[in-house]
Write a structure and sequence with these properties.
Subcellular location: Membrane
Strand content: 5-15%
Oligomer: single chain
Keywords: Membrane, Transmembrane, Transmembrane helix
Strand order of the largest sheet: 1-2
Order of helices and strands: EEHHHEHHHEHHH
InterPro entries: RDD
Distance between the termini: 25 Å
Number of strands: 4
Protein name: RDD family protein
Domain RDD: 19-150
Radius of gyration: 22 Å
Structural class: mainly alpha
Length: 249
């Protein structure tokens, strides 16, 4: 499996496995099946359950086409919306354990996802042959949209051994949540770990809260406290850092 070296803000190169063409194609097929299922359900509800087909009677061709476009609109924006909401993943990518990241080491922005989406019109033309050829011949298995947006699709199936971590033990099948942690340095993580450990011993909730807020500010993360507590968040950040750096103990 080929790898890509992403340079962090601390000028440290971290190697990631590049998602294979096969993994990306399977993810695309899964997403395609989801979109097809959506269209079938919407049309069934429109014509059979709610029996709204009569609304199309008497409309000209362009008006009928406009109605169909409105009904199927979520299909067209499916990639850019879900990649933005799921931090570089769609359901297909999540199932295949792959993710879109910026080559410069930071989380891709909505603008990056938008550029990838716009180029999808070219990449999927000629039955997807253009995008397939681009992924095969490019260095990092990038389609034209990836090249234009400065992104790549990495695999989250890295083979990490527990003995490779220096700050926290992680399982071999561990799946990271925040690729932004690669913007941190070893010293940053040691400070986080030390302060967090001391705060846990005396149950200093104020320090834990401040530490969590500081990490979120640095990494530009907005975490719903109902989905992940401050302690859970810090634990995940520490494990994610170990996952991506894979330092020897």
């Amino acid at each position: 499996m080929s790898q890509i070296a992403i340079n962090t803000s601390q000028n440290v190169n971290i190697n990631f496995n590049i998602a294979s063409v096969g993994e990306r194609m399977l993810a695309f097929i899964i997403d395609l099946l989801i979109k097809v299922a959506y269209v079938l359900i919407v049309f069934y509800l429109f014509f059979n359950v709610f029996d709204l087909g009569y609304l199309l009677a008497g409309l000209d061709q362009w008006s009928v086409m406009a109605v169909y476009i409105v009904l199927t609109f979520p299909v067209y924006i499916y990639p850019v919306v879900l990649e933005s909401l799921m931090e570089g993943q769609t359901p297909g990518k999540k199932l295949m354990k792959i993710r879109v990241v910026k080559i410069d080491g930071y989380q891709a922005s909505f603008g990056d996802y938008l550029i990838r989406w716009m180029f999808r019109l070219i990449d999927t033309s000629a039955a997807g042959v253009i995008g397939l050829i681009s992924m095969i011949v490019s260095k990092n298995n990038q389609r034209l949209g990836d090249i234009a947006s400065g992104t790549a699709v990495i695999s989250l199936k890295n083979n990490i051994n527990i003995s490779h971590t220096i700050l926290e033990n992680i399982n071999e099948d561990y799946i990271p949540s925040f690729p932004q942690v690669i913007a941190l340095s070893d010293n940053d993580m040691r400070i986080i770990k030390d302060n967090y450990t001391k705060a846990l011993k005396v149950d200093d909730r104020q320090i834990i809260s401040k530490l969590s807020d500081k990490i979120k500010s640095i990494l530009k993360l907005d975490i719903d406290p109902k989905k992940m507590t401050e302690r859970q968040f810090i634990n995940v950040v520490i494990k994610d850092y170990n996952y991506y750096t894979g330092k020897d103990s």
